[in-house]
Amino acid sequence: MALFTFPKDFLWGASTAAYQIEGAIHEDGRGPCVWDTFTEAGRIQDGSSAAVACDHYHRWAEDTALMKDAGFNAYRFSIAWPRILPSGTGAVNAAGLDFYDRLVDGLLADGIRPMACLYHWDLPQPLEDRGGWQGREVVGPFADYARIVAARLADRVKDWMMLNEPNVVATHGYGTGEHAPGHKLGETGILRALHHQNLAQGAALRALSAEHSGLTLGTVINLQPCRAESDRPQDVAAAARWDAVWNRVALDGVMRGKIPELMAERMKDFVLPGDEEAIRFPIDLLGINYYSRMTMKHETGHPFDVWWGDAHCDRWTAMAWPVQPDGLYDLLMEFRRDYGNPAVFVAENGAAYDDVVTPDGQVHDAERVAFLRDHVASVGRALADGCNVKGYLCWSLLDNFEWAFGLSKRFGIVRVDYDTLVRTPKDSYRFLSEVAKSGQFDLA
């Protein structure tokens, strides 16, 4: 036995995204976003949509009760930009702010710390029509949006994350086209989208810091240690390039105010004097989304001449992602070693599996339980070794609309029946509940 006791103030909970769970996309004045347009264009693999999703917009109280019953003390949710500003800027939709008022008050009443994320991929379509993340016109509107939401909620919401996974938005939304808005602009499209998200993030962080005191300001980045498939020099170089794109442009932007040296030449045409200082901000808390390492190899015909290599792994999720919990430990130790041990929390960690509902209506998701157990152990090991980790939030509370996969991939610790919208806690929910309530875990 190696029973580890987590700090008493350690955050346990779950994360969600507005577009994936709320539904009600045509209600109460909400405007269109890029994912609505992407869906209407027939780009969702199973033909589904987020029009209803989990109907969290109407059933939020049921969902906060699930978290309370689990013993969770934190919840990271995103605010739907088009629900607040239907055109992305200009007139404010009061009904949108009212919804998040109700949600925040409900969370606090249930003893759950609300952690708000301002942007989880639902860019208002009118802003995309003006260039979206390919240009600077979106920077000012994002900072204004941050001010508007904080003015309403910052008296109760103290934790503010600016972006979620800017690298995913840039790569799949503007580089390769599998995600909204669906552009295939290659290397330059990826790097431009990363840089302009960095600029918008910096502007919003400064706006909130100037106008509100006592807030915990941060952002959330999907970080994955990049490994070369082999020791061939071209594979080693490819992994280093991909690390620079996927991890360092966003991370070193906010943390160090630096464009990675490997990308500086490629970004020189749109990085202006003063930009590096504008994107750097001393954040209070960094959210880390971790799912697996990345094993990369040199292969021409892809952006940056990089493609997936063989991960040499014996466990895989239903997304065909390798299960590599030791990578989370390595990542957390890197922050301790190379970044001055800043305050971080695991903002997303979870897995999709092909859940089976038993005749009695239960979901015994042993693979997901094992996934979560192994990753919680990695967090405990990192804490024991001195890493400044403040919390662990799983992805996700609910089965939901999994972006381009639609409703076909289930990440939730609570099953959602998309016909009846009935919620059923899975074994993984009970596992995390036990850990959250006890605050102890066997690291052996």
Automatic annotation (TrEMBL):
GO CC terms of this entry: cytosol
Pfam families: Glyco_hydro_1 (PF00232)
Signal peptide residue numbers: none
Active site: E165, E348
Annotated residues for binding of substrate: Q20, H120, N164, Y291, W395, E402, W403
UniProt-recorded Gene Ontology molecular function terms: beta-glucosidase activity
Reaction it catalyzes: Hydrolysis of terminal, non-reducing beta-D-glucosyl residues with release of beta-D-glucose
Presence of the UniProt keyword Hydrolase in the record: yes
Keyword field: Carbohydrate metabolism, Cellulose degradation, Glycosidase, Hydrolase, Plasmid, Polysaccharide degradation
Record EC number: 3.2.1.21
Cross-referenced PANTHER family: GLYCOSYL HYDROLASE, LP05116P
Family: Belongs to the glycosyl hydrolase 1 family.
Name of protein: Beta-glucosidase
Organismal lineage: Bacteria, Pseudomonadati, Pseudomonadota, Alphaproteobacteria, Rhodospirillales
